[in-house]
Amino acid sequence: MYFKRILVALDGTKTAEKTLPIAECMAGAAETQLLLVSICDPKPKITDERQKYLDIKAAELQAKGIKSSGKMFCGELLPLILKCIRDNDIDLLCVASHGYTGIKKMVLGSVSEKLIKSTNLPVLLVKDGYDADKAAFGNILLPLDGSLFSEACLKQVSVLARDFKSKLTLLVVIQPPCIPSDRSPSIQPSWDEYYQALLEELKQQAQAYLERLTGELRENGIETEFRMEVSDNIPETILSTAEDINASLISFTTHNRSGIEKWYYGSVAAGLIENSPRPMLLWRNSI
């Protein structure tokens, strides 16, 4: 199993508990341990109830043969979670998003978003509307853009696919080629012919790229297929593909970038994080 020590952030809500079936599935190997962590206000009644809650959840997991323990801390959530990650050699963080929007999101902020931005660990993010009964990783969707950045998590995802005997679907979303609007109509080939030629070239490049990766993965015993889609809305296309193949997990690399590159890549990740009803496994890449 790729992950040995998994931190599951719980706050006593049913939404946060939706991370547990997935974490439990990932902890199927005997050497994997789950650490259930909760941060709350330093009030005796609250702390006593929260620790009792964590002990009950840990006991339920232990009854299933899963190594687990619960730790409760009082104080500011973000620094305490990060300290707990460092002190316990955590290699995966599991968090749930309550899906706040509008004014509530502006005022409260997104705890899960802050955690994602504050750690270099892979993060398993589960959304509020997720059906926890569908935790098995039957089909993992991995969006790629042809870059080494997007491929940074390919090795890790292939290990997960092998461990869970999952089907891995690779997806490339081809953005329609841009042609200068001032191109003269008299120039040959025509605008439409030139557009189609460029698009066909992009499709051929994506086809060769996906066939190469798919072949390598299949040689390693991983059931793999690939898809190509043409769209100028990458997040929406990824989500519609996930719906079409009934993906149980979307996994992708997030980019630590700045300026215009941060805007481009960040917008894709943000669109997925904001709108996906399916669990997402986010891998940080600082290249």
UniProtKB/TrEMBL annotation:
Keywords: ATP-binding, Nucleotide-binding. GO terms for molecular function: ATP binding. InterPro entries: Rossmann-like_a/b/a_fold (IPR014729), Universal_stress_UspA (IPR006015), UspA (IPR006016). Residues 3-127, 137-282 form the UspA domain. Pfam families: Usp. Signal peptide: none annotated. It comes from the Bacteria. Belongs to the universal stress protein A family. This is Universal stress protein family. It comes from Dehalococcoides mccartyi (strain ATCC BAA-2266 / KCTC 15142 / 195). The lineage of its organism: Bacteria, Bacillati, Chloroflexota, Dehalococcoidia, Dehalococcoidales.
